[in-house]
Amino acid sequence: MDDSKAYSSDIAFTPSVKAVQTRKGSRAANAQREANGAWPTVITPDLAAYIAAQTSVMLATASAAGQPYVQHRGGPAGFLHVLDENTIAFADFTGNRQFITTGNLAENPRVCLFLMDYSRRRRIKLWGKAQVIEGDDALIGKLMPENYKARGGQAIVFTLEAWDSNCPQHIPQRFEAVDAQAALDERDARIAALEAEAAALREKIESGA
After folding, report:
1. What pLDDT shows up at residue 1?
2. For residue 41, which of 12, 9, 18 has the smallest C-alpha distance?
C-alpha cells in the first residue's frame, strides 16, 4: 500500500469520495471500518479459493490521461493463478489485437479486478498494480489452462494492494450452463431410479408376491 495512505481503503476512498460520504451520511460508518482495520491487503485462503473457482474477470485500467477502460478476461476455472498472498497472474490470450489494456498498463500500472459469482451472489473488488510480461514462454506456459483452445500471447501479473467484498443486494442469481446441466442430469437420474423402483413394487403387488 502507498505509504501516503492512512488506510488501505484510501486506495478508493479519496478525499473527494470521503467528502461525498460526509455529505450523504455514510462517512461515520466507513470511518468505523477504517478504525477496525479497513480493507484486507493480502489474499486469504477463502479469497484464494474464490479466485480459483472463477471463469471470468473484469479488468479495469486507465490511460495516463485518465481515460478508463474495462476488459473482460475468461477461461476455465483455475485460469486465474494465485501465486502468493499478494500476487495473481494469468495468461493473456490472443484476441482482437487492439491492445488497449496493454497500452494502458505501459503508462499507468494501476488496475482494479472485479470478480462476480452470480450463482452465490457474491462480488469481490481487488485494487493494485499490474504489469504485462512478454516473451517469457515458461511463465506463459505455466499459466495456460491445460487442453484449452487458446494461445497465450503474454502474461499479466497483478500485485494486490487492497480488496473488498460487496453485499449480494441487487445481484441477479444465475448459474453456469454446465452446473445447471449437471443438476438436471442428477434430477433425471433420480427420477429414473424412482420410476424403476415404483415399477418393481407395482409388479410385486400385481403378482401377489
Report:
1. 53
2. 9
Q: Which three cell numbers stand for residue 12?
A: 478508493
Owner of C-alpha cell 455514510: 26
Q: Which residue has the cell 476488459?
A: 71
The pLDDT confidence band at residue 4, using thresholds 50, 70 and 90, is low
Which three three-digit cell numbers place residue 6? Answer: 492512512
Q: Which candidate, 86, 11, 89, 90, places its Cα nearest to that of 43?
A: 86
Question: Can you tell me which residue has the cell 444465475?
Answer: 174
Q: With H, G, I as helix, E, B as strand and everything else as coil, classify residue 7.
A: coil
The CA distance from 57 to 123, in Å, is 11
Q: CA-to-CA distance for 4 and 72, rounded, in angstroms? A: 31
Whether 95 has a pLDDT exceeding 90, the answer reads: no
What does the pLDDT look like over 118-153, one tens digit per residue? 777 889 999 999 999 999 999 999 999 999 988 888
Q: How far apart are CA 103 and CA 61, in angstroms?
A: 10
Model pLDDT for residues 19-28, shown as the tens digit of each residue: 999 999 999 9
pLDDT at 174 over 60: yes
Gyration radius of the chain over CA positions: 24
Q: Compute the distance between CA of residue 125 and CA of residue 30 in angstroms, rounded to an integer.
A: 16
